Structure formats: structure tokens, C-alpha cells
Amino acid sequence: MELGGVLSAIGRTPLIDLTPLLGDRGSVRLMAKAEFMNPGGSVKDRPALYIVMDALRSGELTPDKRVLDATSGNMGLGLALVGASLGIGVTLVVPGSISQHKLSMLRYLGSEVIVTDPLEGIDGAIRKAREIYESDPKKYHYANQYDNPSNLRAHYETTGPEIIEQTRGKVTHFVAGVGTSGTLMGAGRRLREVVGRVRLIEVQPAEPLHGIEGLKNMSDAIVPKIYDEGFADERVFVKTEDAYNTARFLARRFGLLIGPSAGANVHAALSVARGLKEGVVVTVLPDGVYRYIGLLT
Asked: Which domains does the chain have, with CATH numbers?
């Protein structure tokens, strides 16, 4: 199926140069992939498109079925956008802790939304989505973003090659947070295959109970099947307060309007870059501030 309309605008996001944050370190560069510039406003547009298109090609998703998934918001928005573009119904299970902005946007795009206990977080939503699917598997195609190899493949085929092209193959470090882990696992695998020398740094919240929406502390969560604990070369844990403060600083210093998970990624990338004598550090800005403005102000 040839993609047109809004779906053709997914991907090919720019790299933003954040090197001035490092001060006088002429041989080290810090770059950030502006995923908030995807049409759905986040990095999740990429795997959402792959998940739906792969399911259509395989026949697992048929016209009589709805796409079903659990989401903390961004993948849901991606699936809702793709579903609306293709005329496919979407049912999303979300934890009550997600921002009101995300909840309103999901409904605005025409999705059915089921809200679960905020205290159970995304894992509670995952359990509920599985329960819904198992109760009527003929009605739903369970996208299952946390276990779906199409998630990883989206970043292997798009995000990774874009970073290689945009840095002219000079990327030395790739820093990415893990929720589903698709970005790190997919883009990181492509970087290793093509660049070879690149070092992969995984970012997790420091606390099991945290406020960095979209990221998981894997020690106390349902672990995605696409996640490989031994894949990254290094793991950095970021406190919620540091993620928020970094996001606020980037808004006031650079006019860069990013969400908390992007703040966590940049905070970790800064710590990596400041320890180098030379190199090109690339991180990801998964989404923008608009869905979290009430939390960050």
C-alpha cells in the first residue's frame, strides 16, 4: 500500500545541535533527534505505522477488526493517527495517570479509550488490554507494542539510517531511554552494524515509581519481549527531578519545548558527553512539552 497524506510525513526528523550546552569542548558534539516533529508529535509515529502496515500485509489485521493496545499516550496517538488515516477503528487502554492533553487527543482522533487505575501505571493498562483481547480475539488485532518486532524494525529501518546519514557516519555514542525499548534496540542495532564503533547507552528512570512518562524502570515492570537487558554498553539512571529540570532549562535557554522523557535523555547524554575528549553523541527527543505543560510549569 502506497502511503500518502499525513502518513508520508512520518520520519526524516532533523538533528538539533545542543553542543553549546557543553561549553568549551571543541572536539565533542551533542546532537538530538527532534522526534516531536513527526505529525503525531512523537517518536511513536514510526512504530505505530509499521505495526499497522505489517499487520495489514500479513492479514492479521482485517477490515472487521479494531487495533487494540495499551499505551501511556504517545503510541496510542500514533496508532490513532494511523487508524484515522486508513479508516481503521482503534481501542486504547491507558493508565489514569497520563496527561489530560493526551487523553483528549486520543478521543479527538476518534479512538475508543479505556482508562485503568493510575496507581497500576502502564503495567495495569497492559494487563487490561490482554484481558480485552482474550475475551474477544475475533474483534481485535492486539498491536502489543511491547512485544511486537515491528516496533524494533521501524527504528532499524528509519531512525538508525537517518542518524547515520545526518552525522555522516560519525556518531560515536547513542543515548536513548527505554519504555518499549524499540528505539534503542532498533536504531542501536543498525548503528552497530553500519558504524561498528558506536557505544549504546540505555536510559532508565532511577525510581520504580517515577514521573517520566513513557520510560520504564525495568527492575520493577513487565519487561517487553523486544528488550534485551544485555544489549546496551552502559545504563544510566535519571531521577524524575533531573529530567524535569533539564526540560525546563532547555526551554528557557534554547526555546526547545520538550517533554520529560526528552529531558531524561538529554540529562544522560550530557553526562556521557562531558566525560569524553572527542566524539559525536546523539540522543532522542521523543516528544514535545505540550502534553505535559501542567507538570512542568
From this structure: 5-38+151-296 (3.40.50.1100), 45-142 (3.40.50.1100)
